[in-house]
Amino acid sequence: AALEQQGSPQDPLVVRRATPDDAHNLHRIVSQPAVLENTGMEPLLSPEQLRAWIMDLGPESYLLVACVGPELRGGLLLQPATYPGRRHAGELLRMVVDSDHHGRGVGTRLM
Q1: Could you point out which of 14, 88, 96, 110 has its C-alpha 20 to 30 Å from the C-alpha of 22?
Q2: How many alpha carbons lie under 13 Å from residue 15 in its C-beta half-sphere?
Q3: Helices (H), the chain
């Protein structure tokens, strides 16, 4: 809960830690052609596999989502650095924003 940023009436976007229940909507975003084009990613996991992957994330990993009510607008994955001597640092591994919401500040809020 400490990671959650509440929205306001002027900006109802909320950033929170993802839950397994977000898998289907997150899969919808990462499967959009405009998202794939901008990230070079391929949708490798089904919604069910993504749900299992979210459930298996360790406490040191942070999968954040930006949403307005139940509607996901984007996601961001942060993990500890894997390089020797850099365990105190983190790595931004992925960030995706629903193509209908590109250019509206969703990525900025996730960061």
Answers
A1: 88
A2: 18
A3: 23-30, 33-39, 47-56, 106-110
Side chain identity at residue 63, one-letter code = L
Q: Dihedral through CA 52, CA 20, CA 92, CA 29, nearest 10? A: 100
Burial class (CB in 10 A: 0-12, 13-18, 19+), 79: middle
Q: What amino acid is encoded at 66 in this protein?
A: A
In the DSSP assignment, the letter for residue 14 is E
Positive or negative: CA dihedral 14, 23, 61, 34: negative
Q: For the whole model, what pTM was predicted?
A: 0.81
The residue behind tokens 């969703």 is 106
Tens-place pLDDT, residues 50-105? 899 999 998 888 999 999 888 999 999 988 877 777 667 788 888 899 999 989 98
Of 59, 92, 61, 64, the closest CA to residue 3 belongs to 64
- Encoded tokens for 26: 């997150």
* Structure tokens belonging to residue 109: 């809020």
